[in-house]
Amino acid sequence: MNKSGIGARVRRVEDKRLLLGKGRYVSDIRIPGMKDVAFLRSPLAHARIKGITKPAGAEDRVFTCEDMTDVKAIRADSSLPSYRDSEQWVLAKDKVRFVGEAIAMCIGAHRAEAEDLVEGVEVDLEELEAITSIESSMRTDAARVHEHWDDNLFLNFQVGEDPSELERIADVIVEREYSMARQVMNPMEGKGIVAHWDEKEDQLVIYTSTQVAHLIRTGLSECLDLPQGKIRVIAPDVGGGFGYKCILQPEEVAIAWLALNHKATYRWIEDRREHLVAGANTREHRYKIKAYADKRGRLLGLDAEVAVDIGAYSVWPFTAGIEAAQAGGNLPGPYKFDHYRCKILAPATNKPPFCPYRGVARPGVCFAIERTIDAIAKEVGREAWEVRAENLVRTEDMPYDNVTNKHFDSGNYPESLKKAVEMIDLPACRERQKFSGQKNVRIGVGFATFTEQSAHGTKVFAAWGLPLVPGYETATARLTADGGLEIRAGINGIGQGIQTTLGQVASELTTIPIERIKVILGDTSATPYSTGAYASRGMVMAGGAVSKASSLLVDKLKRLAAGMMGCSEQDITIADARAHGPQGSLGFDELGDAWFLHPNKLPVGGLIEGLEATGYYKPKVDSGAFSYATHAVVVAVDTDTGKVDILDYAIVEDCGQAVNPMIVEGQTIGGTAQGIGTALYEEVRYNAKGQPLTSTLADYILPGATEVPKIRIEHLVHLSPYTAHGIKGIGEGGAIAPAGAIINAINDAIASLGAEINETPASPERILRALKSAEDQ
Ligand code: MCN
Ligand code: SMO
Q: How much is the pTM?
């Protein structure tokens, strides 16, 4: 095997520099004359703006919506049925719709000066009724978040047919409501933007911490009415994105507009409080589910309603539609059943806009369906894993089209479950449960299985109403004069290790060791077009493009070597960065030297095709590849305090061909840590007027090292028949299952007390409430 090729546990090439503090994030960029920007943000959740007064003498350093009449509002199109878009002005116009919405921007020589200026701006606001929950948003007499709408819904449609005829034949009917709390994404590095005007290139240059550099160029071009060629977007090191950085943020447009108008350099660096209050939110789902099953626990059908609290605006380009639409489409999970109906609702509220976050809809979906499976198991009196096993799609059914037309490509879902049950040692857990040491400590074990679609094609994005997002990818491979390799890809590195793994793919195909491969990402002027890193698409899509580009380059190297050695191209094989012919061999360095530096060595007549190749790639089918996993967890619940400790955590996952199993494990553990946050700790809270109550990290609780247990991982490998090298995505998977598995485990622990909990986070407060209400009954 190639030591740095596909499947090797290569250390991440990114890490040494980052660990030594040599990262170059947006806030590390220094440009002479650069000015800092601070935003005046709304103190009210819903209010009419009656007037704004700039501080005397500072009129040229304070900007409001009125100064930006040449800037278009952010509007996200979608072709989903019933979808309504919203107009999000870069600085609020006429009305504010959430606490933290930017009203004015102020410029200073440094941030402190800009913030002082913010203090001096006077805003006259007339407070309006704030809509702060799904329930209040959907009341017919509710105030309107967008006044010209006749209700508050971004989305309101239904998929599937009424399954109520199953009432006659179902042995059990289980009804539940579930709720997942609102979250913020909290990448370690917040959002940051520096923009300047490049006189030489006659171009706006914007450095931004983003997952989607090329998309940001499109978005800026639309809002600023500037040709794409006049905009260059650079993403330097990005300290985590997790979805937060896959949308066009109003601040991005604002800072770019300043640079464009004043032909000078401006920056804005989000601080943690801004992130917690004004940054996009995520996750807030509510479910009503009625499940029909037979007496073995086999699902016959599901009747569901899902509502997602979208907040005030529809984000560009992913819209206010995809989360709820995807929730409706993914709720059936990895299970086989025939009848399904889902009402899909996306109410607007006076909260920050909703943005995709690691797992996109599936953490909520997995929580809801996996709780439902456990509820059915309880009803039919079987172990929850057995009921799961009854219902999982089987290998012999693959490829399998499920009830919402998801095309599961390959895998062995029951095996992942079975292995997870073994890893967690269920019989030992059951023993331990009987003889738990302290009376107030209850042990529970829980499981969750899911599938994760990755590498979605154009048709899939179009079905989510997103015509702008293509399902293909491009990369180039260029040999250097000394036999090294340069790979350029439009995908963005955001911490997921893609620089390393794209290098591994190129190394596999070219036999060039990874130390001699440079992977260049994150600059619209230096890389081919890509919509970027989201939806766990990078490894399959950019990996496929790099594979294609590398193999086209190898063909060229073979032709050149054959010409130079006077043999046929078919006789050439490559190994160890050399082209071997029947009568000898030439190193790639010699080939590079000949083509770039000594054309006199080229075969008579020369070769003009060069040593650079572009690969365009899309998987064989638009439905892409489905990875999957089962998470198994053991918890201890303290019934006096409501505190939950995770005692053991095991995962059996399958992402097809792992390009780098060590990175796959890191991805899975990182995602799981975030999922533990969803399950137990994280919650954005508001009071009745829409004032955020969790505006510091002392109030918004993130899991730390002490809350994340040792996580054991086993890999299954079922190659995707549809993708290059059989790769499937893995970036989001870890975050999908923890809420389902952990809340199932908590319920397993407290079931004997007659209690049940169906909300996240399962905070001590909520657990005690559940225990109390069981006691009261
Ligand atoms: N990989 C692999 N073999 C596979 C699949 C993946 O070795 N079969 C490795 C690759 O290094 C790849 C990484 O795992 O870069 C994640 O792969 P993939 O699933 O293709 O996801 P993307 O590269 O498209 O990354 C985006 C994805 C998403 S959508 C979120 S959200 C997320 C995630 O990755 N955000 C992250 N992981 C993150 N990890 C870090 N550190 N920071 C983020 O912001
Ligand atoms: S939330 Mo990931 O950027 O799809």
A: 0.97
